[in-house]
Amino acid sequence: MDKLKVGLVLSGGGAKGAYQVGVMRALAELGAQVDMVAGASIGALNGAIVASAVTPQKAHAHLAQLWDRLAQASPVEFQAFGYLTMLSSAGVALAPTHALDRVLKAARLAAAALDVDLAKSLDRLENSLASDAPLKALMDEYLDPAALKAGLPLYVSLFRSQSPFDDLLRIAAAEAGVMDTPESAYVHVQSLPATEQKAALLASAAIPVIYAAKTIDGKRYSDGGIGGWRTMQGNTPAGALLDAGCNMLIVVHLSDDSPWSRRDFPQATVLEIRPQRAIARDPSLLDHRDLLGFDSTRIPSWIAQGYEDTLACAQRIMRPDAARRALRESEKILEAKQAQSISNEARLADAMARLRRDL
């Protein structure tokens, strides 16, 4: 029988990545051990913390510290012009909903008041709307490059970017069912030059338009969650760990009703941790506040939800497993008693035989 190799898969989902802090707390308490980690977008950043920690307990402690900071100070800061540009570009690419149409009308009114030409602003989409300097500063503070190098193998998904606006159009086409997005690439972070390792993490989390794409090995990459949109190939990078030799996966989702399916991976035992109640806090706002809502209200609630869901998932598995263990134990006891009975009968038969000889 092959040795068990356990991989932890951390999906992307922006600020909802706080859910994974609670997951790690529960896994640490349950004594779970993992051999490799894969992540997309915010899952790549969380995954780097997990991979560089010496124990699951340390991983949870470091994540808890990081997300406590994120709850107090959001890493996303938009300028007024940039925010309006984002709304405008979203309208061009993703206009099918009435809710978004209302948002865009409000954006255009605000743009008129600020004397901003939204049509011309589309030409500026090659530049990001937010600086990744806050994320870089947090990584410098909470991620030790030496610990990452010596830590668990870490894989992240990266999407080959043509341009921010093109990336948005690809997502829109996939959402509309016109065509799927190209698959994301899987990259083993520790195999990259030291100068590109943090860039790869930032690239995996580079939401199109909001953050600038990054150059890795001469190619431009953005948010790894974009690739293979219909099956979440990029956003839930389980394939990276299967390719690396894992035969058991713990997969953590950050969306309600993710289309990712364990049936696509029959070669592995898969434990899925899915939200047991809605993880979306503002579904009426098209997931915008959930994606970028790094605040002191949402983050603690997501952490608690991740913890509760993981324990509930583990209990569902452990109950039948405990029953199977109890059954096996009772069978062993019965076998032992039967063996003892046979042994006693054999000794009695031997004694009777000796007695007959003596007579």
From TrEMBL:
One of the Pfam families matching this protein, by short name: Patatin
Record GO biological process: lipid catabolic process
Motif interval(s): GXSXG: 39-43
InterPro entries per record: Acyl_Trfase/lysoPLipase, NTE, PNPLA_dom
Protein name: Phospholipase
SUPFAM superfamilies: FabD/lysophospholipase-like
UniProt keyword annotations, A-Z: Hydrolase, Lipid degradation, Lipid metabolism
UniProt motif DGA/G: location: 223-225
Active site: 41, 223
Occurrences of domain PNPLA (ranges): 8-242
Gene Ontology molecular function: hydrolase activity
Motif GXGXXG: chain residues: 12-17
Domain of life: Bacteria
